[in-house]
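Appendix B, record 7
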Amino acid sequence: MGQSPQNEKLFTKNFVLTSLSTFAIFTSFYFLLVTLPIYILQLGGSESEIGFIIGVFTISAVLLRVFIGQEINRRGRKNVLIAGTVVFLLSMLLYNYTTTVTTLLLLRLLHGIGWGAATTAASTLIADIAPASRRGEAMGIFGISSNVAMAIGPILSILVLNASDFPTLFAVGAVIAFLSLLLILPISETIVIHPKTPRFSKEALFPSVIMFTVTVTYGSIVSFIAVFTQKQGINPGTFFSAYAAKYGIPFNGSDLAAALFLTVFAVILILVRALAGKLSDIKGRKFVIIPGMILVTLGLWILSVSNSLLVFLVAALLYGLGFGFVHPTMMALLVDFVSERGRSAAMATFTAAFDLGIGTGSIVLGVVLQFFGFSVMYLLSGLVVLIGTVWFIAVNDKKRIV
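Structure tokens (predicted):
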């Protein structure tokens, strides 16, 4: 753990293509991040229904991941990645046919299944490829693909929506998902297929539960940040509105503010992920994870009291910095302790916990929002991460995990 990474090759064909494919599918996913809550309100849904519909997507992905680890070993990483991406693509095409909250809810279930299959298979491929001495660095660099998507997806989706309509938005998202599918085709399989493999990984349980405490808060971000900016009256101010008017760019202040939050969050992730992963390879996982969780907590507590664009974006910066420390390092910690045969089950367990956190956060914190408001919701979110931090420290001190 404390030795310097060796000069093992990292940027192989599989690594690059898997990362690019992941970038494309995440961009398609983030196309709906800011805009879907607006669409739900347009269909007559409430704030709590926004959380439920967003949450159902991740919960369906979680239910699939219970079984997908075995299938990835039985059928191969590439085959499952293709199948999941095809389902994801078809789901994007079907959004134009959802005219009620009920039909949208059913489609989100299908969409989540495709998402769960594709992202678990891609993560397992990367875990196979990553050299042991550069594992943290590899996880950090791979994660940048989704972070770049987060940086451009929300802004691009707002521009497309303001310039056209929801059918066009869904069509563009489908085209991007199709590009993800094309990038998968040249990928080579990484393992000999195992007919018998575990469904659940005990070794993955502890890092997965700790990651869950962080992604619960992410659920409150992805589901409600657009509504938060509208209710708080946060917008980028006269500079952006004047610039938009001058060049004829469609402009909605609160929507753009939400997209800016996610862009700042994503840019910070891009800047710190690889560095955090490499640092954890050299110094150890806990020296990155603990400060990261503390930063996530601070970001959420600042968000709970933000009523100006500056404070709002400071919260995004701290939250992104902390998340960028925790996520790749926790993935590397997970892979440190599992065998090749158990790797797919471990990644399925970890990604299931990640998605379950988002889904639980969307639904439970949506109810908190309905009754107590945004300040209480984000204060409570920070408290959840703080509890996870204390638990990580206590268990690590007892068992010397890292």
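Remarks on this record: Residues 91 and 111 are 5 Å apart (CA to CA). Residues 1-6 have pLDDT under 50 and may be disordered.
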